[in-house]
Amino acid sequence: YSTFPLSPKWNKEDVTYRILNYTPDMLQEDVEEAIAKAFQLWSSVTPLRFIRLHSGEADIKISFASGFHGDFYSFDGPGGTLAHAYHPGKDIGGDAHFDEDENWTKFTTYSGFNLFLVAAHELGHSLGLGHSNVFGALMYPIYMGKDTRDFRLHQDDIDGIQSLYETTPTKPPARPEDCDPHLTFDAITTLRGEILFFKDSYVWRKSPYFRDIEHDTISSFWPSLAGGFDAAYEVDKRDQVMFFKDDQYWAVNGYNIQPGFPKPIQSLGFPRNVRKIDAAVHDQSTKKTYFFVGHRYWSFNENTQSMERGYPRKIAADFHGIYHTVDAALQKNGHFYFFHGAKHYEVDVKTKKLIRTMKSNSWFDC
Amino acid sequence: LPVIPEKEKEDMQFAQKYLENFYDFKEEKSSLFKSKDLNPMSKKIQEMQSFFGLEVTGQLNSQTLNMMKQPRCGIPDVRS
Prior knowledge:
The complex is a heterodimer.
Chain A: E1 14-19, H1 28-43, E2 49-52, E3 60-65, E4 81-85, E5 96-99, E6 104-105, E7 113-114, H2 115-127, H3 155-164, E8 187-191, E9 194-199, E10 202-206, E11 214-217, H4 218-221, E12 231-235, E13 240-245, E14 248-253, E15 256-257, E16 263-264, E17 279-283, E18 288-293, E19 296-301, E20 306-307, E21 313-314, H5 315-318, E22 328-332, E23 335-340, E24 343-348, E25 354-359
Parallel strand pairs in A: 1-2, 1-3, 3-5, 6-7
Antiparallel strand pairs in A: 4-5, 8-9, 9-10, 10-11, 12-13, 13-14, 14-15, 14-16, 17-18, 18-19, 19-20, 19-21, 22-23, 23-24, 24-25
Helix pairs in contact in A: 1-2
Chain B: H1 6-22, H2 40-51, H3 62-68, E1 72-73
């Protein structure tokens, strides 16, 4: 294997990609599947996670073009050069270009080039690998049509990529015990009658359909979402759950992340100086969502999809007895529950008055 | 002098372009003094043959030309 001069690589584990356009040779969903499978090959042997963006600037931009297409390396019509990609870096760095004059296919045939195979090779460049002179390696420069069912990376490719990216992913923090007296949460939401409690990459699932608390990882429900949510809330009418992390948010419907996400939180009406939110809760009766940031909160009207005037307001001014910041929030059975540290506060939805204070782990019958 | 057949000329041009694209080959102006070394194109052909595990001859033989004509990735195999 080889790497580029000075061995450029992505200095982060979450790498974004965006498909800028599609080839007419294949169905769009087949292109998306080929690209996702190509990324999966590399993520399976590195700590990297690939997150697809539908808008905005992505680290790796994927496009199809013919002839001259705005860089120094024009394509050459059918055959010859099939594609090229740039090593990790800003702007064009990491981008992968595919020659539209080729016939792209989903399968390996004599009449076309398997997009998955070519994309997997090009994405190797996007991650920092150069060409390998090992015949049979994915990074060998010549296209070799082969059966892609149960396709695996050659050991040379694995050695190459692992020379750039640590093989042992940064060890996630262990899941705290249910009855840990210091248990805190990153975010909490309802989901179709259940309650999901999030902490790092873990989720506790409390369901009316089973007695015990179920323990899962966030990636087991939503593989492309990294853990460490800041906030989450459900809009039951739309069967939609919103997840917030840093300055982005995602809308999910069941297991599916909705197209067009993530979006910047500023698109909800937050000013630019708000970089992340602490907690969010949706009031099903008023169709308002409260977002908590520091000691203030915003009110978002889900019907008009706009921030209400007169906000942000001080949390303590409206929610009597809540003098802390809010780590996570939940609405259930006519009450709001505001979590702060290892405690949570039960608040009446209508009067906004504090009813009682409890330990956070009381939700797990501790 | 014998004339280079048209096909051979085309192949040489194709190979030169290939080596420029993928093996950092730069055509040098001919020197007044004759170099003892192999001509630069032969050296690059050797490099290419070595990379692909072909017999290293420095000659543009059919095996080498055939390899050059395979569909491939547009990123160079060798950089300066």
